[in-house]
Design a protein that fits this description.
This protein is mostly helical. The protein is built from four helices and no strands. Helix 2 packs antiparallel against helix 3. The N and C termini lie far apart (51 Å).
Length: 98
């Protein structure tokens, strides 16, 4: 059972890394949202999303992961990041920081 505890601890550490990476991604996307708002660019960029999913599927396969499962996860991540780019959310966040 000790082995399971050690392995679960490692999983918890990886989960922490994933959460930190998601937080970094969201912060970058907030900055992108500000640029998009300033230049009148729509939040949704379907060609970019298509490229992201294609790249993710390829990398997932390279790493021995199921590409369709990884794509499903990334669709949620992209959805979350699109939400943080929402101009109202970005403006409110920017006002709080200033």
């Amino acid at each position: 059972m000790e082995n399971i505890k050690q392995l679960r601890k490692r999983v918890d550490e990886v989960d922490e890394q994933i959460l930190r990476s998601l937080s970094q991604r969201a912060e970058i996307c907030k900055s992108i949202g500000l640029v998009k708002e300033k230049h009148g660019i729509p939040i949704q960029d379907f060609p970019r999303e298509t490229d992201v999913y294609a790249h993710i599927r390829e990398r997932a396969a390279d790493l021995g992961l199921d590409p369709s499962h990884v794509e499903a996860i990334y669709r949620q991540i992209v959805s979350m990041c699109s939400a943080v780019q929402n101009s109202e959310n970005v403006r409110n966040e920017d006002e709080r920081e200033n």
